[in-house]
């Protein structure tokens, strides 16, 4: 149920803030043994189960082999990803603005998203949440 709830809520964040320059980027990670299928199977499952998901879903990877995660880890070495749906708010320069544990309801980060969107609008840049 956790997976379903988070997927729907994250899709809602994309719908709410996408026109303002916000983008959800999903990175399936094999470390937690939930994403055991191929990239094609993962994408098919998401598209069939959650047709409202319209943000990019990247190729399956591990934390150790993910260039995105390695960049985040350099910035936030103390941050430990313990499970899927760990969330990172990233600014238009690729800098980590905030991190949110798996258990944080994605709707609870709306205020931080809105604040970052305002900052980025002043700079004319886009920003992303990586989940």
Describe the structure.
- With 131 residues, the protein is of the alpha+beta class.
- The protein has a single domain (2-130), classed as Glutaredoxin.
- 38% of the residues lie in helices and 13% in strands.
- A 4-stranded mixed β-sheet has the order 1-4-2-3.
- Strand 2 (87-90) and strand 3 (96-100) form a beta hairpin.
- It is globular.
- The chain starts with a helix and ends with a strand.
Chain-wise SSE layout:
Blueprint: H1 2-17, E1 22-25, H2 39-49, H3 67-75, E2 87-90, E3 96-100, H4 110-123, E4 127-130
Parallel strand pairs: 1-4
Antiparallel strand pairs: 2-3, 2-4
Largest sheet: 4 strands, mixed
- Into which percentage range does the β-strand content fall? 5-15%
Count of helical stretches = 4
DSSP strand tally: 4
Give the class-level CATH name: Alpha Beta
Q: Spell out the helices and strands N to C.
A: HEHHEEHE
User: How helical, in percent, are the residues?
Assistant: 25-40%
Domain count: 1
Compute the separation of the termini in Å.
Answer: 17 Å
The CATH architecture would be: 3-Layer(aba) Sandwich
Radius of gyration: 14 Å
Uncertain segments of ≥5 residues (pLDDT<50)? none
Short description:
The protein has 4 helices and 4 strands. It is an alpha+beta fold and about 130 residues long.
Keywords:
single chain; 131 residues; alpha+beta; Glutaredoxin; four-stranded mixed β-sheet
């Amino acid at each position: 149920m956790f997976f379903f709830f988070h997927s729907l809520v994250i899709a809602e964040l994309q719908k709410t803030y996408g026109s303002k320059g916000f983008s959800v980027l999903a990175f399936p990670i094999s470390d937690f043994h939930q994403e055991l299928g191929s990239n094609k199977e993962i994408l098919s499952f998401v598209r069939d189960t959650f047709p409202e998901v319209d943000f990019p879903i990247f190729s399956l990877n591990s934390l150790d082999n993910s260039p995105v995660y390695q960049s985040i880890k350099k910035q936030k070495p103390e941050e430990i990803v313990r499970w899927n749906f760990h969330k990172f708010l990233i600014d238009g320069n690729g800098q980590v603005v905030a991190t949110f544990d798996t258990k944080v309801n994605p709707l609870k980060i709306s205020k931080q998203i809105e604040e970052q969107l305002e900052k980025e609008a002043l700079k004319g840049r886009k920003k992303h949440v990586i989940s």
